[in-house]
Specification:
The chain has 889 residues and is an alpha+beta fold. The protein folds into four domains: 2-264, Thiol Ester Dehydrase, Chain A, CATH 3.10.129; 306-311 and 471-682, 3-Layer(aba) Sandwich (Rossmann fold), CATH 3.40.50.150; 327-445; 692-888, 3-Layer(aba) Sandwich (Rossmann fold), CATH 3.40.50. Helices cover 32% and strands 26% of the residues. It contains 25 helices and 36 strands. The relative contact order is 0.07.
């Protein structure tokens, strides 16, 4: 389509610095319209929206705009919006917005009602002052005329909108009139006007959104409720919020979740020349690093680093306790405990037990009689303990009996009072109430607890607890303080290698990353779920030293591709308690650390009722099997932590709580432990006792693959060679496969081994550009890429755990030489990077050999790069030096 103001006056209704800027709601409408055309009539919702560059419609100059939707099946797709200026070079298309489309969830999303918003927002907004403030910043929005009245609350604004007659008709050509949504967004202008505690000099740009749902077309009269989530202290000028639109009857008509706003200073919102600031772009630089660096730094302190860190941490913990007013948790604790007991009592009565005195029965007999499903029997036992503490039941040996005691008060009444007295702690209170009200259905197996905790697949409720609550912010800040103390005192000099276990939504990562030295840090963001890794790549794009890899800490990390002793610092926040065997988990964590390396944990030292009533609804909460350490819940006491860390080879010290109950429902501890330095690293052991690797070499014609196989076999490793051909053949440990058939490659992998992990070296691309006259060889870049894809598909199809390494020669402009990159092999790096994003669990890395080196040297260098296990997955060798890819401005 063509965008110009004469054809679409709405495009001129949103101006910044005098320039017409296409507002965010227009992109939403474009995505919905394109989805209906490409994916079907819907309804659809838009998720993971990212606005990459503002689209400016300059006076008299139309722009050609394209919305590209890529189908992904099952009514899902991805979209991008591009534009090209009039008279511009046909190759100068700009990407403005990208996101994903999926079928809309059934029913309206849960959340704040119009009545809730009205009760909380009662301080009038000066609409004329707001209009003047926007005007002074060069922001002119025609929809401001629809902003009739507004009221503020704590971090939220409720606005009453009255739209002109022609804009309230819900014209059929729109799913949701962009002008109407632009008017609704003005509620955020009121919230953000002083969001950072001072007026923003420029203004805020909408740069993204997690989810947009349109439930019905709007009428003329609307209510717009904008609410901000607590901001991150380390990301000033960035705010996240939710927007909900209601009709006059209080019916929700649209919901916009996870709206991301970025503050911009005067003159930078729009650049009239169309240029982007130079520091928006990164370039790849090749940095030389030692070929065989030791992991241990020099001059380590004589005292254990745990002791060094603890010198200042107690004082910092006390200051953070005061800063975030954590005493409020203690004030709330007893009432929240009572609400949990009341919900437990109510659920058990709903299941059919009136708790009156009678015959005593075992917990299993009672659960079976009430229809409690087997997977929730441990949870049921915990609920009986809660009722025993409230004297509603009594335990007699292994049996239980009701006492007929006085019932608990109405839980919803307690919750309502808590929300009124402690609005800062709303996420914890509301999640407790939400799960408590559905407890009976969960116990029967009729309710999915994951839907309660992650409604609609959203992490909003749990992220509010783990990242934005006062407790989370305080303890993440304490972890940050611990890291800032440890790095200069215990890890001096050289590159610092950090691994975070179970990084999840990135709450702790966000706190720690800013205090790590950018130029000498490698940070491995790991989780058991690939979904978290994909989300983190987007979230932490500003930190180029991050790497993303799957890790299940309950399994041997070495079997998952991690080198023993490969890290200086391992971090785990609220993660390890979710494992079945804490001793085994800690042994695995210890195996990742070099001698003198440090383990930094944030863990609970007592399980609270509200946690059992929320996260305890999931089976994972009750996986613990080491009952000698934790007989009643997943949390370990401080003393148990000291004991088990000592058993597993750590020296440990714990930063204690500020006293029992000081934080009410937040008995957390920062645990700092280190590995003694006087021990032999696995990498120092003789080769004869090292664990042997298994290799598959997809060999080139030039002899590099043969050389690699020879070196590996002389070292005692198992290695098979695979040549491309026209049919499947095998002769001992040498195979021939059709490279166009992933099935051949999968079959070869199956026959070559016993299902153990493999390192697979792809060297077929080294022959790209050679005219060999043989099938499957010498057909240039296209053939090399298709063979690489086929090799990966074969690995994927085989189901065998393995890592694919793509080896090229002279494909990258690395080093000081003037030799241009080999165009036949360079595209393989694009293939590799794509695999790294889509399947990090099967990815090894990219190695670019020196085209000036001899075959034997190339073979040796390739093996060194693959076996280093330091996480570098983009390496080039030039003049005997090892170069690694780094992003730089």
């Amino acid at each position: 389509s063509r965008f110009d103001i004469e054809r679409e006056p709405v495009l001129g209704d949103h101006r910044i610095g005098g320039a017409a800027v296409v507002p965010g709601p227009v992109y939403v409408e474009m995505a919905l319209a394109s989805a209906s055309e490409v994916l079907g009539p819907g309804p659809h919702e838009i998720v993971d929206i990212r606005i990459r560059e503002a689209m400016v419609i300059e006076g008299g100059r139309e722009r050609t705009v394209q919305t590209v939707v890529t189908e992904e099946g099952a009514g899902r797709g991805a979209f991008r919006v591009y534009s090209l200026g009039r008279g511009a070079n046909p190759t100068d298309w700009r990407t403005h917005v990208e996101g994903r489309i999926r079928p809309a969830s059934e029913g309206p999303p849960a959340g704040v009602t119009l009545g809730d918003a009205r009760s909380r927002c009662n301080s009038p907004v000066d609409v004329e002052a707001l209009r003047k403030t926007l005007g002074d910043r060069g922001i002119e929005i025609a929809a401001m005329d629809a902003f009739e009245e507004g009221w503020r609350g704590g971090g939220e604004v409720l606005a009453r909108l009255r739209l002109p007659e022609e804009e309230g008709k819900g014209e059929s050509r729109y799913h949701f009139d962009p002008t109407v949504m632009d008017a609704a967004m003005l509620a955020f202008a009121a919230v953000l006007s002083e969001a950072d505690g001072r007026p923003a000099d420029g203004g805020y740009f909408l740069v993204g959104a997690e989810r947009v749902r349109i439930l019905s077309r709007p009428g003329r009269n609307l209510w717009s409720h904008a609410s901000l989530l607590p901001s991150e202290a380390d990301r000033p000028g960035r705010h996240v919020g939710n927007l909900r639109l209601y009709d006059d009857g209080g019916v929700l008509v649209a919901s916009l979740e996870g709206l991301l706003f970025q503050r911009a200073e005067p003159g930078t919102l729009v650049r009239g020349d169309g240029r982007l600031p130079a520091d928006w772009f990164y370039r790849v630089e090749w940095e030389s690093i030692p070929r065989d660096p030791g992991l241990e730094g020099s001059g380590r302190p004589a005292r254990p680093p745990a002791e060094v860190a603890l010198e200042r941490l107690p004082g910092k913990a006390k200051a953070l306790h005061a800063e975030f007013r954590l005493e409020e948790y203690a004030e709330m604790g007893k009432d929240l405990d009572l609400a949990c007991a009341a919900y437990a009592e109510k659920a058990i009565r709903q299941l059919g037990w009136d708790l009156s005195p009678g015959a005593s029965r075992t917990a299993d007999d009672i659960a079976a009689g009430l229809g409690v499903v087997p997977r929730h029997r441990r949870l049921f036992g915990k609920l009986l303990d809660v009722l025993r503490e409230e004297r509603l039941v009594e335990r007699r040996g292994e049996n239980w009996v009701g006492t007929g005691g006085m019932p608990c008060p109405d839980p919803d009444g307690i919750i309502e009072a808590l929300l009124a007295r402690h609005p800062r702690l709303k996420p914890q209170v509301e999640l407790t109430a939400k799960c408590g009200r559905r407890l009976a259905g969960v116990l029967r197996g009729e309710e999915d607890p994951l839907h309660l905790l992650f409604e609609g697949g959203s992490f909003e409720a749990t992220e509010a607890l783990y990242r934005y609550s006062p407790s989370a912010r305080a303890f993440n800040a304490l972890v940050r303080e611990a890291v800032s103390e440890l790095v200069p005192k215990s890890l001096p000099g050289g590159t610092i290698r950090v691994l975070e276990i179970g990084a999840g939504t990135g709450g702790t990562s966000s706190a720690v990353l800013p205090v790590l030295p950018r130029g000498r840090t490698d940070y491995f963001f790991t989780d058991i779920s690939n979904a978290f890794l994909v989300r983190a790549r987007e979230k932490f794009a500003d930190f180029p030293f991050l790497r993303y890899q799957l890790l299940d800490i309950e399994r041997d990390p070495q079997a998952q591709g991690f080198t023993p002793g490969g890290f200086h610092l391992v971090i785990a926040a609220n993660v390890l308690h979710a494992t079945a065997d804490m001793r085994e988990t800690l042994r695995h964590a210890r195996s990742l650390l070099a001698p003198g390396g440090i383990l930094l944990l944030l863990e609970g030292t007592r399980t609270e009722r509200w946690a059992d009533l929320t996260f305890g609804l999931t089976e994972g909460w009750w996986r613990f099997a080491d009952l000698d350490l934790r007989p009643a819940g997943p949390a370990l006491s401080a003393e148990a932590w000291r004991c088990v860390l000592g058993e597993t080879g750590f020296r440990a010290a714990i930063v204690p709580d500020e006293g029992e109950g000081a934080r009410g429902g937040q008995p957390l501890a920062v645990i700092v432990a280190d590995v003694p330095t006087k021990e032999v690293r696995p990498t120092d052991l003789p080769a004869a006792v090292e664990k042997r690797r298994r290799w598959i070499v997809l060999a080139d014609r030039g002899g590099t693959g043969e050389g690699i196989a020879g070196v590996l076999r002389r070292g005692g490793d198992s290695c098979v060679l695979v040549d491309p051909g026209t049919a499947y053949r095998r002769s001992g440990d040498r195979f021939e496969v059709d490279p166009r058939r992933p099935g051949d490659i999968a079959r070869m992998i199956g026959e070559a081994g016993d299902g153990s992990p493999y390192e697979i070296l792809f060297l077929w691309g080294l022959d790209a550009g050679k005219d060999t006259g043989e099938p499957g060889r010498g057909d240039g870049a296209e053939t090399a890429c298709s063979m690489a894809v086929s090799a990966f598909r074969g690995l994927l199809r085989s189901g065998t755990p393995g890592k694919l390494w793509i080896v090229t020669r002279g494909a990258q402009p690395a080093g000081s030489g003037k030799r241009p990159p080999d165009r036949g092999q360079a595209p393989l790096w694009g293939i590799g990077r794509g695999i790294a994003v889509e399947h990090p669990d099967l990815w090894g890395g990219l190695v670019d050999l020196d085209p000036e080196a001899g075959t034997e040297e190339q073979a040796a260098m390739a093996i060194e790069c693959v076996t280093r296990g330091d996480g570098e997955d983009q390496v080039a060798i030039r003049e005997g030096k090892r170069l690694v890819a780094r992003l730089a401005r």
